[in-house]
Amino acid sequence: MVDWVRENVATVIRGNHDKVTLGAEILEWFNPVAKAAAIWTLAVLTPENCRYVQQLPKGPLAVDGYQIVHGSPLDEDEYLFGAEEVEQAFAYLDRDLTFFGHTHVQGGFTSTRRRAHDLRRALGRGIGRAGSESG
């Protein structure tokens, strides 16, 4: 997967599993399943791909007219799920359109006059929700 990302994705930021390549002490914060997955990943990463992952930048990262973050702009490991939580985060962001990755829920949030709007609701469908209709 890392080979494909390196060849096909222009902008990447690190996530919590990527940080494991920087030091094993991070694993103590993982639940047992996530810890096992991270240990497996470390075992199968090639040295070249491990160096690539170690050099991924921390978010937030501005890209053209949008921004990407892993968790929140203040804590890359914080979970933000709804517009109410994200609304507070926009005070620390440089773009009105931001994509958050840590939740593993597809979608994004946009800001109008510092009010956050969940793009999944704005599009009128449950993007990324298990068992939802795609409209």
Short overview:
The chain is an alpha+beta fold and about 140 residues long. Helices cover about 30% and strands about 15% of the residues.
Assign a percent range to the helix content: 25-40%
Cα shape: globular
Question: What structural category characterises the helix and strand content?
Answer: alpha+beta
Q: Provide mean pLDDT, rounded.
A: 80
Rg, Cα atoms, Å: 16 Å
Number of domains: 2
N-to-C span: 30 Å
Count of helix runs: 6
Largest sheet: 5 strands, mixed
Order of helices and strands: HHHHEEHEEEH
For the biggest β-sheet, the strand order reads: 1-2-3-4-5
- Strand runs, count: 5
Low-confidence stretches: 125-135
Percentage of β-strand residues: 5-15%
List the helices and strands and how they pair.
Blueprint lengths: L1 H7 L7 H4 L12 H13 L2 H8 L6 E3 L2 E4 L13 H7 L7 E4 L8 E4 L2 E4 H4 L13
